[in-house]
Amino acid sequence: MNRIRMPDTKRRAGATVYIVSIFLALLSLLPFWIMIANATRSTYQIQQHAISLIPSGFLSNNLAVLNGKIFNPATGFINSLIISTGATLCAVYFSTLTAYALVAYDWKLRQPFFTLILAVMMIPTQVISIGFYQFMYRIHMTNNLLALILPSIAAPMTVFFMRQYMLPALNLDIVASARIDGAGEFRTFNSIVLPIMKPAMATQAIFTYVNSWNNLFLPMILLTKKENYTMPIMVSLLKGDIYKTEYGAVYLALTMSVLPLLIVYFVLSKYIIAGVALGSVKE
Length: 283
Fold this sequence. Notes:
This protein is mainly alpha-helical. It has two domains: about 1-60; about 70-240, Orthogonal Bundle (MetI-like fold). Helix content is about 75%, strand content about 0%.
């Protein structure tokens, strides 16, 4: 009897897992759908009924309100795109390169250098913001998008993650074989190490892109010209109207801010899944 009932029990358990997974997925998507729906509603509708799943017809009005501000939303979107993309590429590539130096090379100060990286991880950005601004002001880098891109080359948290992933994933015998065959260090890194590190790089690319895109503190300090504003700065200014806050325009700006993050996640998530699948079959 137990042998006959076992398949039914497994089917019920599998169905329960699917139902719970679908419920959690819908629950996770609900805030995004409410935000998109509010982007098509008027301020009065949002104030009267804060939660609604049905879109309205005020999208063009909200877009007109957004375009009527002292800043250009398209310019802010492009600025955020440039900063986030540049910061992500710099952080991921150079952090992987630093982690490779900590794993593949045996040098005297390797462990003290890694300890220094761990110590820098504990320092909040706000603590060094005054000195960072003074440094950027003296070298005339304020109101320059590069001031928010180039510092991403030094990303202690990303270096730590890359090193921990690289220790079990990278076989140093492959690196030694490439050196014997006459490959240079950068060619070995770019041709052998980077493909192995794709899952880790995709994971950190998502985190770095999201953090850079949502960054408000440093852009508010360094960027004072309207043509250099980023999307988070523009969204923060929308909440500071003298007479009233146009919540429909605010939700429309938030929707514009979230869409690139979703695209980046869906593009890079396949590499994360591939890395997990690859690690599950290693012997």
